[in-house]
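# step 3/5: fold
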Amino acid sequence: MTSTSSKATYVIGWAAIVALASSLLFALVLSPPEVSMGDSVRLLYLHLPTIAVSYLGYGITFLGSVIYLRNQSVFWDLLAGAAAEIGVLFTAFVLITGSIWGKPTWGTYWEWDPRLTATTVMFIMYLGYLAIRRMDLPQEVRSRRAAVIGIIAIANLIIVRYSVQWWRGLHQGQTLGVDTQLDGLMLFSLFLSVVAFLFLGAWLLIHRFRVAWLERQVEDMRLARALNERRGEAGDATLGGAVS
């Protein structure tokens, strides 16, 4: 592999562009304001899709971590790391859009609501996961430690998911469900936004995984070169001793 681009990324990239443009049209123009939230509901078309992508990224990290600890698969190790980066990126968007939404709704950009607090903890945990992957340690040690954190951190994602049901807070309940207040064009706009962001997340994930794969190849080549140089130095020393 010498490039991160392919026919698949080309198709997914264009699908993401078309879907994002369409979702913006529906979210900002065609979709009507909500009865109680008014035009602030339009932030939902950005907020909820970022949640979906971050959850999916962390789910892939969990799966990849489990498989790596089981069979030491480099593919799944790198995929887990790439998915965690995508998850962290979109979790940052979740916190930002949530704060913007909170100002007109709660009157403040931030409250230590159970959902917000749990999401912040999740964000920090996966930043720690990524930090472990960058530590100056042997590859196997880094990957193994990161995989353990990737498995443990999934528990916090579950807490985030059910925090509004387990504790009372300012955050609204489940947006989509049997009692959802969204219907018609608003529900379609939300669905379209989720699809668009999933395309975007997939495109970013594929490229980031391929970059990680190339980085691993470079690291392996540097290690092999260093070992060959060390062997060469040892051989020269042995030959010099024999001649003397």
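# step 4/5: annotate
Residues 8-28+40-171+182-212 form one domain.
# step 5/5: archive (pending)
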